[in-house]
Amino acid sequence: MITSAATKRETPYVWVTWLTKLMSGEDSCQWARWFRIHYEGYEKMPSDFDSVGWNMRHTRLLNETANKWEDEGWSVKIEGENKFSRDWYLTDKTHLILGGKPDIVARRIDGDQITFNIIDCKTGKPRLSDRFQVLTYIYDQAPIFKAYIEYFYNRRLQAKADGNEAGSYMFKLMMNALYGKFGQNGRQ
What we know:
Blueprint: E1 7-8, E2 13-15, H1 16-24, H2 30-38, E3 39-40, H3 51-71, E4 75-78, E5 84-89, E6 95-100, E7 104-110, E8 113-119, H4 128-141, H5 143-161, H6 165-183
Parallel strand pairs: 2-6
Antiparallel strand pairs: 1-3, 4-7, 5-6, 7-8
Helix pairs in contact: 1-4, 4-5, 5-6
């Protein structure tokens, strides 16, 4: 029996995986996500998920993967070192907090060029939400992506305001092209 009452969050809080499951269509209950974003302190339904076994498998894969990247000369940070919680302003008056924790962020500096990889260690079957999760981490971790999207988004809004449908469509394609390029599966 669930006995605790939920309390309303002061600011809506979104954990990356809550969002990406909706984006991918793996979770279709928008109300449940809305509730979780706006309320906290409630008891969850009991589950038969083997969290101890999952944690053991995930930690082993995480450490093996991090060691591989370090052996190849990358500077590696894992899980808690990568945890973030940032304010995202949706309008002038509306914002939420987006939180997440990439499994591995590997960086390498070569002269004035910085290269980074975000590695998501999954022990189960790959899902589309996993891909959206990494894309969200990339967007958060790499300011160049945010600047790119904000630039073309603002240009698109201006084109719409000016009645320039072709320009608006072009700026939309530019934003979609970034997602398309970085969302592609390099193994195919």
